Amino acid sequence: MVNGYPNIKINGTTNGHIHKALETEYGHRYTYELLLETVHYIRNRVSFTPVVGVICGSGLGSLADCLVNPIEIPYSTIPHFPTSTVKGHVGSLVFGHLSGLPTVCMKGRFHYYEGYPLWKCCMPIRVMKLLGVSHLIITNAAGGLNPSYKVGDIMLVKDHINIMGFAGNNPLQGPNDERFGPRFPPMNQAYNRDIIQLAKKVGEDMGVENRIHEGVYTCLGGPNFETVAELNMLKMLGADAVGMSTVHEVITANHCDMEVFAFSLITNECVVQYEANNEPNHEEVIDVGKQREGLLKQLVSELLKRVFENGITSGKIGK
Ligand SMILES: O=P(O)(O)O[C@@H]1C[C@H](O)[C@@H](CO)O1
Ligand SMILES: Nc1nc2[nH]cnc2c(=O)[nH]1
């Protein structure tokens, strides 16, 4: 292996040039060494090692306001970082302490529909891992497919359906660098079960257990919202909520052995009947995020406190 690329000869290219040949074939991926440059830049600006990472979904950037003594670094100033282009995604890393724990929040994520390939959307997850993050909380705004879900409910993600992956689009596609993780990572225990149980308990203690569900998330490429036929198909497949993110992030985080907890804020009920005349829109998505920010901040802070009090590391059966 040379920097995670197989040490083989393609079209007579010498080993010295193999890297470039594969870059052309697979796109210009971030090598381990390149990401170390990003990490080096950040470490020079932040004096502590974050152990918790939080990805703020659409309209949920205010989760970063929970951080004590925040240090904000705009993505545009960080070497090799993509930039955020979506309303409701500010585009900065915020470092600080959350429930006493050293934390980094991504105030804004990258989506496939912005034109970024999945490996680029997921680059910050590997950066967080290299910085020291062991526990990743992924949040998103999603449409509720399960008829029992109401706008403003929270779905704790217990599993996902990787629709884009069905067609071979996966953030781990291309040469594998074992320093990040294995070529064939398992995904059947992708979401830490102990943290899900703890989150349900926190919800009970907050008196909002009737607004909290456990369900299956699926991600489409976007940016358009779904047709009625697509939504009915996704329902039949077993999805409870649909969005445009998270799945590829969860795959990348599991690949590099992070503990993952994810939840969706249900910002709209999916329209699964042709007779209905309501249509989803991004403004509504952001508004619901604002309405529920207090609840979500409390949930995340209390959950993190308990995760570390209980010493939850692996939520995998038998580990
Ligand atoms: O970043 P997330 O997944 O929270 O954002 C969802 C999906 C689209 O980006 C947007 C649609 O309103 O919300
Ligand atoms: N794909 C998708 N993403 C969303 N994000 C927020 N609501 C929705 C939705 O209904 N569909």
Automatic annotation (TrEMBL):
Tell me the InterPro entries matching this sequence.
Nucleoside_phosphorylase_d, Nucleoside_phosphorylase_sf, Pur_Nuc_Pase_Ino/Guo-sp, Purine_phosphorylase
The yes or no answer to whether the keyword Transferase is present is yes
Q: Where does a purine D-ribonucleoside bind?
A: 226, 268
What the entry lists under Pfam families is as follows: PNP_UDP_1
Q: What is its EC number?
A: 2.4.2.1
Q: Which GO cellular component terms, listed alphabetically, does the Swiss-Prot or TrEMBL entry include?
A: cytoplasm
Q: Which reaction does it catalyse?
A: 2'-deoxyinosine + phosphate = 2-deoxy-alpha-D-ribose 1-phosphate + hypoxanthine; inosine + phosphate = alpha-D-ribose 1-phosphate + hypoxanthine; 2'-deoxyguanosine + phosphate = 2-deoxy-alpha-D-ribose 1-phosphate + guanine; guanosine + phosphate = alpha-D-ribose 1-phosphate + guanine
Fetch the SUPFAM superfamilies from UniProt. Purine and uridine phosphorylases
- Pathway where this protein functions: Purine metabolism; purine nucleoside salvage
Its EC top class is transferase
List this protein's GO terms for biological process. Answer: nucleoside metabolic process
Domain Nucleoside phosphorylase intervals: 52-305
The entry lists its GO molecular-function terms as: purine-nucleoside phosphorylase activity
Q: Which residues bind phosphate?
A: 58, 89, 109-111, 141, 245
Write the record's keywords in alphabetical order, separated by commas. Glycosyltransferase, Transferase
Superkingdom to which the source organism belongs:
Eukaryota
* Similarity-based family: Belongs to the PNP/MTAP phosphorylase family.
What does it do?
The purine nucleoside phosphorylases catalyze the phosphorolytic breakdown of the N-glycosidic bond in the beta-(deoxy)ribonucleoside molecules, with the formation of the corresponding free purine bases and pentose-1-phosphate.
* Cited NCBIfam families: PNPH, PNPH-PUNA-XAPA, PRK08202.1
Please report the name of this protein according to its UniProt entry: Purine nucleoside phosphorylase
Q: What is the lineage of its organism?
A: Eukaryota, Metazoa, Ecdysozoa, Arthropoda, Hexapoda
